[in-house]
Each structure stands twice: as structure tokens, then as C-alpha cells.
Amino acid sequence: MRALLVVRANAMTHNAPSPQLSQMLLDLLNKRITPVVQSRGTVGEGDLAQLSNVGGTMVGAGDAYYQGVRLTAAQALAKAGLRPLEPFASDVSALISSDAYATGIAALAVDDARRALEWADLIYAMDLNGMNSSVTPLSTVVQRDRPFKWLNWHAARVLDMLRGSYLFDGDPKRIIQDPESLRASSIRQASAWQDWAALRAAVVLQMNSSDHNPAVRTDLSPQDSWELSTPQMMKYYVKGGERSGGKHGYIVSNANWDPYPLANKLEAFVIALANMDLVVALRIERFNNPFFTLTTPAEVLQARAAGNRSLSLAKGDDYTPVDLQQEIQSLTNPIAPSGAAIVSTVEDLQAQTRIKAYRARQAVATTFDLLGYDLLSAALWMDVRAAQDASRTFGPAATAAKNAFRKLVPLQHEAAKPRPQPDAMTAASFLETTPAASFYADGAPLPSSD
């Protein structure tokens, strides 16, 4: 909800609120007052219900959290030393005519998704180390053959993560081709990055422009564009005068609350993310096939029966990654375009942006869980490769990430020390709270998103 407040306060500069309304938005943020807002009731064409709840808090109606404690809105305002707002002129319209609710959710999804994609890249490098993979699909030879800039950027990024790895040393036992899921992971992950960048660009523009009706511009004159001087448009021209300090401009009706292209970008990103998550789930499973690995963890680490059980726990179960991937897959079905002629048939479009934004957040959250299993597998197999040959190196980033994770999840737990929670949960929590950038902060900048 605080993201909603930030978005609305930022875009308010494009509207015509009273000074006290703008100040109250800032006061709610700075005094840590968070309105209790209904999660449903918006059809995605202006989040009127949610922003009306914010307006209720401003005037002392409804409930709100003050520094984390739920109170009546009147009590929250009083404890913060604020007086209830006295709306002026068109303050109600200035506040509620906005898509700030869905935009705030989308902004949080963008931030979470970047962290998930960064981890997907680093764990992929760890997987390649664990599989004793061929790095040829990432090489310049291959990238010159298919010059998609996001694919080329990503291949170079993962290659850089692997710099210093034993994968660049000759190994007569290394197979020529990895399973497709490992070979194509960079392509799928690059494509997810590309759609993430498009979503981020849409969210940033949405947050820094106006979705308010009417449009109020005090920086335009009739001579600025040919249609502005026509009789139809001059009906909406305000000349201004002494009391306005010479300000002049237009007030016109519009449909800027129709949340496209942002709504499309949300669904496009979820589809791209699901295509990436499919290869993540499949490459986890490929580590169970000795045809590719040429060995098993038990053989290399010489585990006895109890130790073998511990190694089984160390890689995670086989069922949950499939379940997680299929959950993400279920989120890719687009919301069917629909319209219902409500409000005396005037408001006849619905975009359901909040559902699309919530789906994006759910897909990203589930991706972290799936990547937790990928991390378990990658770390185990890096340990296997190190046990096979102690001289092997894995590159600084992969090594640092694995070592940090092993401090939380040792390779084999001591029987006398029960685990506080399943290793997969610990892995997912580690990914969510520890930025991948703390292990790999270098690399080329993102390509332009045009």
C-alpha cells in the first residue's frame, strides 16, 4: 500500500490538487501511516475503490496502520499529529482518478524480478560448473551466428561469471553437448531479461506521467500544435490572468487511465519468466541422470547409508520443483479481454490490471522457490566436482555464492543437529535476502530496451 502512496504522490504533480491534498499524501508516507485498503473492487481502469480508501484515511474515516499498529484512521492521524483533511474543489477526483494501486504492485514485481533474474544467472553458472559442461553455446562463435543483442549480452555475462573456471580447461571426459535445458538456459534467461526491461520501462513511464482524467496542462498554448487553436479545442483553453500569475493551458477529457501498454507488459513478462523457469526445473532433473554427470554424489563423496540419506536431502526432492514449475505455468494464461457497460454504460472497459500485477508477483515469488532447489543441486554438484579433483576452480562468483550458502546449509548435516526447516526453504530465503550482486556485481550494462 505504501507503493500506492508513492506512485500517487509522484504523479500528483501532473494534476490539479489542493496544496493540502498533496501535503497529506506526503504526510501519510513520512509519518508511517498506511491506510487499510481493500484488495479487490478495481477493474483496472482507475483504481477508484483503493484510492477512495486512502481518501477515507485522510479525512479520518476507516482504519489505518500507524507505525505498524492498526488503529482507526482518526486515531492514526491524531497520534501522528495530523488534522483530518478538508477536501477542496476537485480534490476527490484528483486523488482517486489513477491506476496507482496496480502500478505500485507492478513496481514491486519489477524490483523482485530483477533480483530473481540475477540469481538465475549466477545459479546457472554454478550449474554449468556442477555438470562439467561445455561452454561452447556461450562462446563468440555461437553468438556471432545469432546476433540478438539480449542473447549476446547474456552469454557474455555468464561467460564472465565463469572466468577462471575449470570448464575452460581441457577434459577428455567432458561431453560434447549438454542436455538442451542447460544449453538453452542462457537464451531463455536472456529473453526473460528482455521482457523484464520492457516491463520496467513501462512501469517507470507510468509512474512518471499522468493517468488522471481530466488532463490539466499549464504549459501549452494555442500555437503549440495545430489542433489546439481550432474552435473545438479552444473551448477547453483557460487564458489565465492576474490571479493565476499568467498561467494558462487546457483542461480536457481523456482515457489515460486505460492501463496499456503496462497491462500487456505484465502478462508478457510472466510468459517469458515461465519459459525460463521450465529450463530451470528441467536442468535440476538432468543432474539425476549419470549419462550426463558420469557419476553420482554418493560414489564420489563415498557416502555410507546415513550419509547417502543426507546427500539426498542436500539436493532436495524431485516432486516440488515440478509442482512449482507447473504453478508458474498456470499463471501464464492471459486474462481474457472483456468489457461490461457499468456506471450507466459510460465505463465499459475493464483491464483487471491488479490481477495481472498480482500474478506477476506470484510468479516471481514462486521462481525464488524454484531457484532454491536449483541452488541446492548446483551447490551439491560443485562439491562433487571439487571432490573429484581438488585443483578445480569454479570462478570467483560461483565459488563465493556456494561458500556463503554452505555456511547456512552444510553439505551433510550432523545427525544430532536437526534442521530448523527444510533445506529448500532455507535456500529460497537465502536467495530472497542475499542479493546475487553481492557475489557478482560486474558485467556489461543492460542493453537498451528499444
Tell me the β content.
under 5%
CATH topology of the largest domain: Fumarase C, Chain A, domain 2
Helix-and-strand structural type: mainly alpha
For the record, what CATH class of the largest domain applies?
Mainly Alpha
Q: What portion of residues is helical? A: 40-55%
Strand arrangement, major sheet: 1-2-3
Tell the overall outline: elongated
Gyration radius over CA: 27 Å
Low-confidence segments: none
Question: How many structurally independent domains?
Answer: 3
H and E string: HHEHEEHHHHHHHEHEEHHHHHHHH
Largest sheet: 3 strands, antiparallel
Number of strands: 6
CATH architecture of the largest domain: Up-down Bundle
The CATH homologous superfamily of the largest domain is termed: Fumarase/aspartase (Central domain)
Brief write-up:
The chain has 450 residues and is mostly helical. Helix content is 55%, strand content 4%. The strands form two sheets. A three-stranded antiparallel sheet has the order 1-2-3. A three-stranded antiparallel sheet has the order 4-6-5, with no helix packed on it.
